[in-house]
Amino acid sequence: MATPSNPAMAAALARLWTRFLPEIENRVAILETAAASLAAGSLTAEKKQAAHDAAHKLAGTLGTFGLHRGTDLARHAEAFFAEEDRTATAQQVTAGIAELALLIKTRK
Amino acid sequence: MVAALSLETVAGWDVIVANSGAQGLQRAAEHMPDAILLDVMMPGMDGPTTFRELRKNPKTARIPVLLLTAKVQGADQRRFADLGVEAVLTKPFDPLTLSDQMSRILGW
Predict the structure, then answer these.
(1) What would the DSSP string read from start to end of A11-78?
(2) How many CB atoms lie within 10 A of CB A22?
(3) Do the domain assignments include residue A92?
(4) A59, B1: Cβ pair inside 8 Å?
């Protein structure tokens, strides 16, 4: 998936990445805001839900663009904000979100 | 959108894109596609509700539907499969193999 051998597909995915990048970056920003609120002890239910939804969408999207690690990190964040994963710490999730942001930034 | 583009690019299929459940219902009845690839999380009407509405309409009731979801947990997958769709596909998907995967499931 990272380097499609079909040139038409590679070109199409490159176009789509450029087109969807602002939306992807916006979703990461939502996660970063939630992580900051989490660290400050002020994560509201709304921010938590928004973070869950953003993580869910990133998990479904990033792998298609070859960012499988991004999908994994987004899935961890999704499970954390949905309270499905009670073993992850806030620090782990925050570090994961920072890594996710870096992955996206360096793919450009 | 990514799915639609990949199918057009790789398989040469005629793809009709809808950006919401309501638009999907309208386009399905209008164009009578051979199959529908339906996302679970959509603005307004979600995928399962859209699927039920498709089944309620005698015109669209027999169109095969494949659900596309970023939910990877077994319980979610079973819940979606129990709706009566042809298959539940997990995101992220591989744009290069999606059309083959769909063809195989649908027996084309």
Answers:
(1) HHHHHHHHHHHHHHHHHHHHHHHHHHHHHHT---HHHHHHHHHHHHHHHHHHGGGT-HHHHHHHHHHH
(2) 9
(3) yes
(4) no
Q: Nearest CB to A59: which of B70, B94, B96?
A: B70
User: Is B108 part of any domain?
Assistant: no
pLDDT, tens digit, 9 for 90 and up, residues B22-63: 999 999 999 999 999 999 988 889 999 999 999 999 999 999
Q: Which two tokens stand for residue B108?
A: 């084309």
Q: Could you give the CA distance from residue B3 to residue B46 in angstroms, rounded to a whole number?
A: 17
User: How many folded domains does chain A comprise?
Assistant: 1
Cα separation of B65 and B47, whole Å? Answer: 10
For the stretch A7-16, contacts whose Cβ atoms lie closer than 8 Å and that sit 24 or more positions apart, written own/partner, are A8/B9, A8/B10, A9/B6, A9/B9, A9/B10, A9/B95, A9/B96, A12/B5, A12/B6, A12/B9, A12/B95, A13/A64, A13/A65, A13/B2, A13/B95, A16/A65, A16/B1, A16/B2, A16/B5
CATH number for position A62: 1.20.120
CB contact under 8 A, A62 and B92: yes
- Residues in chain B with CB shorter than 8 Å from the CB of A75 are 72
pLDDT at A15 over 60: yes
Give CA torsion, residues A47, A108, A92, B93, to 10 deg.
Answer: 80
Residue A29 neighbours by CB distance under 10 Å: 12
The conformation of residue B11, written as its DSSP 8-state character, comes to: I
